[in-house]
Amino acid sequence: MLVGVCDFPSDYPFPPAAYGGIERWLWAVAVGARAAGADVHLLGPGWIPDLDREWTRKPVRLEGVTAGSLAEQDLRRTAYDLLVVGHEYPSHPGWVRTWERMDCDVATFQHSPSFNHSADAFDGRRSRLYCYSPEMLERYEDHQPIAELAVHLGIGEQEPQATTGDDLVWLGRIDSDKAPHLAARAAELLGRRIRIVGPIFDEDYVRAHKHLLGADHVELTGQLGGPAKIAALQAGSVFVYTYARHYVEAGAAVFGEALRAGTPVAALSWREGTCADAATCDQTGVVAVADPAEDDEKAAHRLAEAIVQAEELEHSTVQEIGQQRFHPIRHFEALTSAQC
Predict the structure, then answer these.
(1) Distance of alpha carbon 204 from alpha carbon 98, whole angstroms
(2) Does a cis peptide bond (omega within 30 degrees of 0) precede residue 227?
(3) What is the pLDDT at residue 339?
(4) Best exposed site among 75, 89, 115, 146 by fewest CB in 10 Å?
């Protein structure tokens, strides 16, 4: 099988060292495809040049190819079996025009809870959309979505054997959508320290919750990548997950990252059928479902209870299950199982 993994124009390098959603997913698919025995081409100019020694790179983006050009002819002659792309492209007219001339499948994962696809973007067979949770499957039911847990990878993030950490850890972008102040309050209720790892996206949010995010029991580490990121995850006795009431999580990378590292999850959710439910089981995490009408204080208490329960889970079992469910080869094989 010949697979083309298309880069995604963004501010993050490919493969990303720390933050990034679509970018980390595309790299995981490339790694999984090659490990599964497929030939893999990295399409687009965004991939870092250092990959040239081990990967075939072609700096072409389909949306920029002119009809009838030598670039189009080369893409057709290459005879790809599958293209893997960011979710926007199957609704991009220029990209679709070139793809339709290539006679291959396309697969993508829905990384946004609000992107509007064109009505004919997906047929569930030749063009396939994958979604993480029951919530996301329902939101995109008009596009025949397929249930699948996304896998995300960065460079140098191989997980060593799981260990039982001491403090709590939270990972993600720091803004109102992700609501890490709830994790900080839950830690305070338990008299525990918590490391909050990630880039600050909203300074106003941090200032508004300075009494929690700036408290003595909270360490804001900033963005971490590679071995430092994995070490931070494994140093936690529990990975704490939060998000805001209004927010819909399309496919959080953090669940796979935490579980592969062997760190059990304590998640706060506001409804059933979310990514937290899809990613965890009774051996890997505890999901506390709060009523959106409840205030932050009651929600933090629910989360604190979930943390206490999650600390009883066995880290080695968490890692074993996490590395099975969020394995790049398994994920790639899932993306190809619906091929016609």
Answers:
(1) 43
(2) no
(3) 54
(4) 115
Tokens encoding 116? 């509007």
**With contact defined as beta carbons under 8 Å apart, do 197 and 221 qualify?**
yes
Torsion angle (degrees, nearest 10) of CA 81, 85, 88, 89? -40
Q: Please provide the DSSP assignment of 40-53 as one string.
A: EEEESTTB-GGGGG
**In the predicted structure, residue 256 carries a pLDDT above the cut 70:** yes
- What CA dihedral angle connects 44, 46, 48 and 51, to 10 degrees? -20
Angstrom distance (rounded) from CA 292 to CA 71: 52
Of 211, 217, 274, nearest to 241 (Cα)? 274
Task: Report the C-alpha gap between 70 and 76 in whole angstroms.
Answer: 10
CA dihedral 33, 34, 36, 37 (to 10 degrees): 130
Contact 195, 169 (CB under 8 A): yes
The pLDDT tens digits for 125-137 are 999 999 999 999 9
- Per the CB < 8 A criterion, the answer to whether 313 and 99 are in contact is no
pLDDT in tens, 183-225: 999 999 999 999 999 999 999 999 999 999 999 999 999 999 8
- Strands lying side by side in the sheet with 236-241: 218-222, 194-197, 167-171, 236-241, 265-269, 285-289
8 A C-beta contact, residue 195 and residue 236: yes
Residues 29, 19 contacting (CB under 8 angstroms): no
Taking residue 30's Cβ as centre, other Cβ atoms within 10 Å add up to: 26
pLDDT of 340? 44
Instruction: Work out the average pLDDT over 246-264.
Output: 95
Asked whether 122 and 128 are in contact (CB, 8 A), the reply is yes
Residues in the chain: 340
Which contiguous run of DSSP H or E holds residue 240? strand 236-241
Confirm if 61 and 45 have CB atoms less than 8 A apart.
yes
Alpha-helical runs (H) found in the chain = 22-35, 70-78, 93-100, 134-139, 180-190, 203-208, 210-213, 226-234, 253-261, 275-279, 296-310, 315-325, 328-336
